[in-house]
Design a protein that fits this description.
With 174 residues, the chain is α+β, with helices and mostly antiparallel strands. Helices cover 34% and strands 14% of the residues.
Length: 174
């Protein structure tokens, strides 16, 4: 007898049923216990606007709203989000919640390849929902966890600043 307990082996076929409200719709998925939320969203639910970038929570490409707060979906197991309300970039777009941010990003050319843009928009949306009058330094600080390799950040900061000012004045972005 080898002393090896085979009952401790995981054959990799075990799945867990999880339920979420994603973009206002109740969904259920079968996931492996160690499957990340970003992989579940992209693969099982085909919500590919949420990107898997660094897979270490450093780049911000995977940001989604979980129960109203921006979280790195690459750092969270799908089973940890069971029962949660999740908004992805698709849901925020469909609801119109970020229409002014999207328009201003486009107007100011604050995106190029677009890989980082969903995470930037989720982060900007959270910032503007918490701080009505963020300074440019506060905007930069809020974006400190988002990497953009194409545009630099000045146009992104300009776009968020313009939307914040327009919202304060009660109109759309300029």
């Amino acid at each position: 007898m080898s002393g090896f307990d085979e009952t401790l082996l995981d054959d990799g076929d075990e799945t867990v049923r999880v339920r979420f409200v994603v973009n206002g719709r109740k969904v259920a998925c079968e996931v492996a216990p160690r499957e990340t939320l970003v992989d579940c969203l992209r693969n099982a639910l085909e919500l590919t606007g949420t990107h898997a970038g660094c897979e270490m929570g450093a780049c911000g490409a995977c940001l989604v709203q979980l129960d109203g707060r921006a979280v790195h979906s690459c750092l969270m197991f799908a089973v940890q989000a069971d029962g949660a309300k999740i908004n992805t970039i698709e849901g925020l777009t469909e609801s119109g919640a970020i229409a002014d941010l999207q328009a201003e990003f486009h107007r100011r050319n604050a995106l190029q390849c677009g890989f980082c843009t969903p995470g930037m928009l989720v982060n900007a949306h959270e910032l503007l929902s918490q701080v009505a009058r963020p300074s440019r330094d506060e905007i930069r600080d809020a974006l400190s966890g988002n990497y953009c390799r194409c545009t630099g950040y000045e146009a992104i900061v300009d776009a968020i600043d313009a939307v914040a000012k327009a919202r304060r004045e009660g109109g759309g972005a300029t």
